[in-house]
Amino acid sequence: MNEIKIKPINYENRPYRACVGIMLINAKGQIFSGQRIDNRAEAWQMPQGGIDEGEDIETACFREMQEEIGTNKAEILRIHPDWLNYDIPEELANRLWSGAYRGQTQKWVALRFTGSDSDINIETEEPEFISWQWLSPEQLVQRAVPFKQDVYENLMDTFKDEINVS
């Protein structure tokens, strides 16, 4: 019996996975950041996740926030005008999402956190983070994995008016 062998998609030809990114800003102009639970290095990031079929950006944003940090106490300040892409290293791309994607294309949302720190609970059904902190924009960019740093720098510039509090 002949076995059909499926040739994997070349890394360069893989599409990007559509997802929403969440920049949650507190009253002091600090940004929520979580330390990833699945990374041996000290990798910090903002919440993000896939957009379900038929879901709009705002709905995906609040769903992902609830799923990842246990709260949706926030109000949308601004949605980034562009989709921002990043490639993940090929060896990681081959393990994630069954090797179907080369990275992510993200629509980012800046939100003002309206709750209190006690509303945040990273011990969710499917935890993404092992710990969390409010960080300055500079700290967050420095602690992000290298392949996300360009996107994060873009976000800090685009959302600078939303981050800065008077």
Largest sheet: 4 strands, mixed
Instruction: Supply the CATH architecture.
Output: Alpha-Beta Complex
Number of strand elements: 7
Strand content: 25-35%
Supply the CATH class: Alpha Beta
| Elements, N to C (H/E) | EEEEHEHEEHHH
Q: What percent of residues adopt helix (DSSP H or I)? A: 10-25%
Domain count, please report it: 1
Strand order of the largest sheet: 4-1-6-5
How many H/I helices?
A: 5
Poorly predicted regions are none
How far apart are the termini? Answer: 72 Å
- The whole-number mean of residue pLDDT values reads 93
CATH T-level fold name: Nucleoside Triphosphate Pyrophosphohydrolase
Name the structural class. alpha+beta
As a whole number of angstroms, the C-alpha radius of gyration is 17 Å
What overall form do the CA principal axes indicate?
globular
CATH superfamily: Nucleoside Triphosphate Pyrophosphohydrolase
Provide a short characterization of the protein structure:
By secondary structure, the chain is an alpha+beta fold. The protein is built from five helices and seven strands.
What would you note in describing this structure?
- This protein is α+β, with helices and mostly antiparallel strands and 166 residues long.
- The chain has a single domain (15-161), classed as Nucleoside Triphosphate Pyrophosphohydrolase (Alpha-Beta Complex).
- The chain is 25% helix and 32% strand.
- It contains five helices and seven strands; from the N terminus they run E-E-E-E-H-E-H-E-E-H-H-H.
- A four-stranded mixed sheet has the order 4-1-6-5. Strands 3-2-7 form a three-stranded antiparallel sheet.
- It is globular, with a radius of gyration of 17 Å.
